[in-house]
Amino acid sequence: MEIAVYWTAQGALSSDLLLRSAASRFTGLDRAEFETVREFGKKPYFLRHPELSASVSHSGGIWAAALTPDGPVGLDIQLPVRSPRRDAIARRYFHPKEAEATLSSPDPDAAFSRIWCRKEAAAKLSGRGIDGAFGTFDVTSPDPVTVFGKPLYLADFSLPADSGPLYACLAFQKPCSPRMVPLTVESELS
Q1: pTM (2 d.p.)
Q2: Which CATH superfamily is domain 4-189 in?
């Protein structure tokens, strides 16, 4: 299984331009080949290259995308959350094991942020997103985790941002070692 995660500071560049640039780098094809289609509540896809799966996330001024020709993929990046509602959110939306892991952690903000990031990546892979079933699966167990009845793998990593490291998680269907690729687009536009 081949997966690459491209990331960059978003700046004034559109997510579609960045996604087309990442797909061009991934495949070696011209960026014009990758017209993106976005439907409300769904992952973007490429009109002329439906065989290429993508998942996009942005936080803290950083944009990232995971690309693979080997099936669905889910990616989430997130600034660490510091919220007075953290415990209530964990109790309401997390699986009971995840809520316990958050509430009993020596650093509950970090635990909450990491679990939320893992859950979003898993939900994006499933295509269901965050819905009423968000608390029905547990992402704290060892891989593979079971999400909506299907096994999947999660890879945690971090990305640098001006405001400090971002939590990041990639969800995929088979064991693999994703490639991390910084994306530079400005030089390609001139």
Answers
A1: 0.92
A2: 4'-phosphopantetheinyl transferase domain (3.90.470.20)
